[in-house]
Amino acid sequence: MVASLKNHPFAVKAFFTNSTVLTFAIPKEELAHRIPKHLQLDTFKDKWAFVAVAMVQTKDLRPKGLPKFMGNNFFLIGYRVFVTYTNKAGKRLRGLYILKSETNKKKMQFMGNIFTHYNYTTTDITIKKEHKNTQIISLNSNFKIDYNDNLDDVNLPKNSPFGTYKEARRFAGPLPFTFTYNKENNSILIIEGVRQNWKPSPIHINEYHFNFLKEVGFKNAVLANAFCIKNIPYYWKKGKLELW
């Protein structure tokens, strides 16, 4: 019973005031051993696999159906691999596999680790905004991003494997599904996200550093794209478990 609570037992609703996502291209050989059975890497040109770093400011996060005043505001950081999963009905789903999850509040860590498998840890977050620049900084997690999100013309990052923003948006994240694998019962948990007004805008990255990418041993990570999405109603459906 306690274990089943982690399987996202109810729908969750939130409002994304801001979501900043950087996607890194990594040679598929460096990522292949990091995803579990039943999942496959979602690749580009059969060469590149991708890890998204999503930094999301949520508002009024709560079980779906509860009033807003019962919600909470959290900052969430997620490191996710782009993957595909062919479900038992034979349908191919595009989604994300979790490498690491962080939040800025102990309450989110506590509740999130009761009702999900995301293994949240708590870290510090500082956001600095000036006329044209936004900085998101964590001293404990050793990351920093400095970007402009109000430029009329933004080029793809240098050395990006994508030739156009049409290609890049396919790996902008987050995708409709998030997958968790449970080795004990050989199951895949599917969490579907539902969003509105999803219009990612490219941002110009002035500076970035994510220590986590070095910690896990990614030697050849290349910044492939960077997008910002604002003011998005969002909710996650109740988890669906498939046993193999």
Secondary structure layout:
Layout lengths: L1 H4 L6 E16 H4 L7 E3 L6 E16 L8 E15 L5 E12 L2 H10 L4 E3 L3 E4 L3 E6 L4 E6 L16 H5 L7 E6 L4 E9 L5 E2 L1 E7 H5 L6 E15 L3 E4 L1
Parallel strand pairs: 5-6, 5-10
Antiparallel strand pairs: 1-3, 1-14, 2-4, 3-4, 4-5, 7-8, 8-9, 9-13, 10-11, 11-14, 11-15, 12-14
Shape: globular
Question: Mean pLDDT, as a whole number?
Answer: 94
Helical run tally: 5
Major β-sheet annotation = 7 strands, mixed, barrel
Roughly how much helix do the residues carry, as a percent range?
10-25%
Q: Which class of secondary structure composition applies to the elements? A: mainly beta
Distance between the termini: 20 Å
The percent range for strand residues is: over 45%
- Beta strands, count: 15
List the helices and strands in order: HEHEEEEHEEEEHEEEEHEE
Poorly predicted residue ranges: none
What Rg is obtained from the alpha carbons, in whole angstroms? Answer: 17 Å
Q: Give the spatial strand order of the biggest sheet.
A: 1-3-4-5-10-11-14
